[in-house]
């Protein structure tokens, strides 16, 4: 097996043919059946490639793991996380409070102040710690709904968290929907993204953060994609198509390299490298504005904020 270099928390695992199904004929993000271009090869025998859709520009694996395999894979991962879990310890993001402050910078304060109470949906939110950090900065009554396949733990504290396994039963009355580092794990995200966006009230906000590592893979085939945990690579070209495909009544507030997820005190070298790689992307976004395909693509992750038009 070839040595791989990983900058992400998931290491790729080789998946056998019997555990995969071919989804190369249709884009799982926008359902387009246009022929997709190969961007990189994730594994051999059987070959799994990364394909880029010409319509929405999403990059997705040509083969998805069958649900039974994926359930077993995540049960193993959750068992590992559970062994390390203590309340108060963050699992992926090092400083949830900094992250919460970052998200809230983009939300209109007057609109938030007008709401008597707020409802937040955190898709793939684990124990709900990010949503709780957001809630604690809002200084008003907040209801949190976490959608996650993981174990039933939720962050303990003053804010009540309800946890569900699917978005289907949620009411369309939410103020903030967060999908941070979660959509890349879903084999078939089209209905999930549609549903998440539909949960928003007019004026509500959708924050998304996804990995965007394919530029590194084109440059360097030792780069590890993190398959089958990661199934999609969604960068600026995809998020700049979001309004056209999913949300014609939305405005894109932010589309930029994602926030650095490590903290300098805990992982100084990784944090400096990540910040240095993202810096040219931020400068470019500032100079050229939102909605253009950036020249500098080596940023590792992308984030965007959309706002449903207020009535
Ligand atoms: Zn597509």
CATH architecture level-2 label: 3-Layer(aba) Sandwich
- CATH homology-level superfamily: Vaccinia Virus protein VP39
Low-confidence stretches: none
Report on the biggest sheet.
7 strands, mixed
Write structural notes for this entry.
It is a single chain. The chain is globular, with a radius of gyration of 19 Å. Helix 2 crosses helix 4. Strand 2 and strand 3 form a beta hairpin. It has helices at residues 67-84, 96-104, 109-114, 129-138, 190-198, 214-219, 236-239, 242-245, 268-288; strands at 20-22, 37-43, 48-52, 59-61, 63-65, 117-123, 141-147, 161-164, 174-180, 200-212, 232-233, 250-257, 300-308. It is built from nine helices and 13 strands. The chain has one domain: Vaccinia Virus protein VP39 (Rossmann fold), CATH 3.40.50.150. The longest helix is centred in the last third of the chain and has 21 residues, at 268-288. A seven-stranded mixed β-sheet has the order 8-7-6-9-10-13-12. A four-stranded antiparallel β-sheet has the order 2-3-4-11. The chain is of the alpha/beta class. Residues 27, 29-30, 32, 53, 55-56, 58 line the site of zinc ion (ZN).
Which descriptors apply to this entry?
binds zinc ion, 311 residues, seven-stranded mixed sheet, 9 helices, alpha/beta, four-stranded antiparallel sheet, 28% helix, Rossmann fold
Brief rundown of the structure:
The protein is an alpha/beta fold and 311 residues long. The protein has nine helices and 13 strands.
Topology:
Blueprint: E1 20-22, E2 37-43, E3 48-52, E4 59-61, E5 63-65, H1 67-84, H2 96-104, H3 109-114, E6 117-123, H4 129-138, E7 141-147, E8 161-164, E9 174-180, H5 190-198, E10 200-212, H6 214-219, E11 232-233, H7 236-239, H8 242-245, E12 250-257, H9 268-288, E13 300-308
Parallel strand pairs: 6-7, 6-9, 7-8, 9-10
Antiparallel strand pairs: 1-5, 2-3, 3-4, 4-11, 10-13, 12-13
Helix pairs in contact: 2-4
